[in-house]
Q: What sequence folds into this?
């Protein structure tokens, strides 16, 4: 893990240049948005942005800080916590202080008892038919499965977690931008899932050893009396198979717990400016409001025109003689006088002469 971190820190890896470029782009985008007025300048947001940049630089460029806050916390912390919990459960020194020494002793005991069963099994008889041959087969298979479900899962989780932590500075640099923040959250969820797996595995191993110990003691006592009963062997085999099911369930539970991680939104000017885009639903609702406002204005204009027309129709029409100054003019009488005037006769032409 330290070797991978050191390899990333070298100039030949290109990561220092990438980190410098990302910081330059961050400052350029921030200045561009402030210059065009597309970002809201607040003191608290700038302080959070500066703190985020400082945290990224401290963790991505200094191994001591990264080891103390990230590597040791995720890689060794869960296993130490599981050892402390198992030590509290152990009673009267029934199990060894080191849980892996207890696993080694249990596997050695199962292999020894399997060899004793194999000596009592008749030759050329299938172990699936039962008897001493089935006891030898069950104990050997139980030892292999127990090693696979505990140490195998623990090694896989440790290796994957080590690889994730080795490339951690790359994902820490992606925290600088809101558009790449999801990659950092995915990396953090994966690290937490593979950190919880050793915790669950060590606890499962401790409880398995506590339950296997009386069964192995019973098998040893039976063999000391030259008795090869298969009940205890079947119990050991069933218990180991149940251990496999519990191990798979704990892997799923660890993934679900880590998948529920949601980082709080950082109110940086860049993040707020990037998230200022209106969603299609909001645009549709805004368009509906505009259409409703235009329709309301049209209804008001139509109502005003109708009211003005009704007011004009209700005005009284004048049928009395029109008054100009103090004189009253009766236009109907004038028209009648003009009609009674004699029309001029046509002039005689020379045709009659």
A:
């Amino acid at each position: 893990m330290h070797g991978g971190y050191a390899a990333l820190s070298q100039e030949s890896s290109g990561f220092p240049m990438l980190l410098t470029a990302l910081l330059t782009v961050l400052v350029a985008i921030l200045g561009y948005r402030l210059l065009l007025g597309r970002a809201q300048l607040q003191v608290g947001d700038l302080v959070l942005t500066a703190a985020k940049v400082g945290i990224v630089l401290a963790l991505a460029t200094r191994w001591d800080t990264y080891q103390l806050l990230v590597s040791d916390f995720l890689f060794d912390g869960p296993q130490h916590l599981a050892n402390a919990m198992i030590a509290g459960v152990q009673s009267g020194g029934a199990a060894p202080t080191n849980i892996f020494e207890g696993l080694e002793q249990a596997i050695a005991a199962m292999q020894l008892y399997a060899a004793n069963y194999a000596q009592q099994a008749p030759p050329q008889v299938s172990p699936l038919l039962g008897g001493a041959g089935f006891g030898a087969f069950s104990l050997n298979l139980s030892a292999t499965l127990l090693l696979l479900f505990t140490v195998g899962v623990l090694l896989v989780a440790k290796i994957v977690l080590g690889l994730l932590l080795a490339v951690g500075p790359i994902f820490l640099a992606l925290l600088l931008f809101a558009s790449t923040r999801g990659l950092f959250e995915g990396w953090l969820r994966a690290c937490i899932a593979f950190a919880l797996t050793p915790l669950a595995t060590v606890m499962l191993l401790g409880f398995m050893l506590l339950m296997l110990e009386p069964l192995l003691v019973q098998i040893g006592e039976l063999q000391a009396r030259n008795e090869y009963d298969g009940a205890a062997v079947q119990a050991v085999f069933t218990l180991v198979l149940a251990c496999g099911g519990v191990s798979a369930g704990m892997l799923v539970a660890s993934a679900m717990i880590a998948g529920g991680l949601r980082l709080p939104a950082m109110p940086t000017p860049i993040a707020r400016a990037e998230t200022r885009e209106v969603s299609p639903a909001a645009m549709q609702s805004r368009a509906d409001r505009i259409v409703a406002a235009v329709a309301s204005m049209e209804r008001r204009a139509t109502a005003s025109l109708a009211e003005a027309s009704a007011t004009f129709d209700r005005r009284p029409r004048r049928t009395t003689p029109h008054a100009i100054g103090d004189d009253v003019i009766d236009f109907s009488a004038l028209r009648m006088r003009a009609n009674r005037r004699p029309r001029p006769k046509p002039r005689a032409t020379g045709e009659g002469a």
User: Anything to note?
Assistant: Residues 181-224 form the longest helix (44 residues). The chain has a mean pLDDT of 77. The chain is about 75% helix and 0% strand. The beta strands are 322-324, 327-329.
